[in-house]
Predict the structure of FadR family transcriptional regulator.
Amino acid sequence: MPRSANSPPPPPRGQRIRETIAQLRERILAGEWPVGSRIPTEPQLVAALGVGRNTVREAVRALQHAGVLECRQGSGTYVVSTDELAPVVARQLTGDRVTEVIEVRRAFEVEAARLAALRRTPEDLVALDDALAAREAAWHGGRADEFVEADVVLHTAVIAAAHNRLLAELYASFGAALRSSLVETMGGALTAEQYIDHARMVEAIRAGDPERAAREAGAYLEAAPRA
């Protein structure tokens, strides 16, 4: 249908692409297309978003470059991350930068433990207890990948108990890449020297003792770069 004389002019192409990227991002963050799921086809996106094929194509390509989407030949386009910073961080977590990784973990996790001791709620304590129990069970199960996942979940629960949204968002970017890095450095089997107890840190958070919680968090990072 032709545009009438009184209709406003269409937005510039660059603006349409930016707006389409924002719409796609919003739907991903809202959980409409979870990580691991396939997004609608190009014609379906055109119909749903009310823009042209080229605009959709450019928006999808931009999110692919950002590491949010991944095109799989013959299968479709999938959501691989909700966080554009995570792939950037992942590229930095190489084997020759272990010391830097530990320094960044210390910056996040020591302060998070201190804040958690000051701000934890009863719900946070339940989450910490559950995560600690799951970590212990994963250790006794003997599978490195399961233990690393449980370990990250526990540290994420500490971050959540700090109740600092920006800290949580930044740690999410770091933590997503940290999983694969830890699995690689630990190897396929768990050994006794790799185990580091986290119960004392959780107890310090429960006791509301910020200095002891920070000290315990710093101690496990000093003890071993793999836990």
Notes: The chain has a mean pLDDT of 82. The chain has two domains: 13-82, 86-223. The first strand starts at residue 69 and ends at 72.
